[in-house]
Amino acid sequence: MNSGGFQTAVALFMLWAAASPVLAGSGRIVTVGSAVTEIVQALGLGDQLVAVDTSSRDLPGMEQKRDIGYVRTLGAEGVLSQSPDLVLASSEAGPPEVLQQIRAAGVEVVVLNSEHDLEQIDEKILEIARSTGRESEAAPLLGRFASDLEGLRNTVGALPSRPSVVFLHARGGNNLMAAGSGTAADAMIQASGGTNACAAFQGYKPLSAESFAAMKPDFVLVSESVLGSDDDLLKSVPGLAQTPAARNNHILRVEDAAFLGFGPRSAAAARAVATRFAGP
What we know:
Blueprint: H1 3-19, E1 29-32, H2 34-42, E2 49-52, E3 66-67, H3 76-80, E4 86-90, H4 96-104, E5 108-112, H5 121-132, H6 135-157, E6 164-171, E7 175-179, H7 184-191, E8 195-196, E9 204-205, H8 209-215, E10 219-223, H9 230-236, H10 244-247, E11 251-254, H11 256-260, H12 266-278
Parallel strand pairs: 1-2, 1-4, 2-3, 4-5, 6-8, 6-10, 10-11
Antiparallel strand pairs: 6-7, 7-9
Helix pairs in contact: 1-6, 5-6, 6-12
């Protein structure tokens, strides 16, 4: 959204907020999805958060919150045991029947769009602000995000070329997997001005030494879920040491919540990566 569009969106939002009743202006809040949790925190509602999903527990200040489980495998009993007044959930949350059980118990459930699109994050902020009665706190947050997004566009626009990128993520047991198309990492690689070297396959899969050699990535982005130092990584991932990324010291660590969460810090995280793409 450009600056003119941002100002128009905020003005329309304030008119809409003034004309409509607040869904749940206060009370006990449960969040599902790290981006949702970050927005709730940024709107000054951290003290009202009584429980979060597992992906949110790594966020600062969330370590002591009750854990209601993984975003796609929630249980109604675990959520309802926290006596929430409002559940704010990513559209990835489920199973659907669990959300329906929570609604049937009389709890307001708001499901937020979680598409892998930076251009839609401002809408997510607006809806959460509306649902929690924090309209006035939304304007500065939206302003910061709009500034970050504009900075990202400028940085990406100045790139001389789109580098080839591999994103590595750790699944159970620190098993390394590369991100293919249809993933949050793929969307963020593109938003940062890169080209996903693994776009030929869907989802996550391990890469062989031969695959790395064939792809010749200019950069390797490494999720914080991957344990160990860069030296450990070079020793443990077959073929990685022979890539242009390794030879040029282009192995970049990224924070999962910021880079993959599509929340208020995601545009800034993408710009930080784009800035490295532009460097030596």
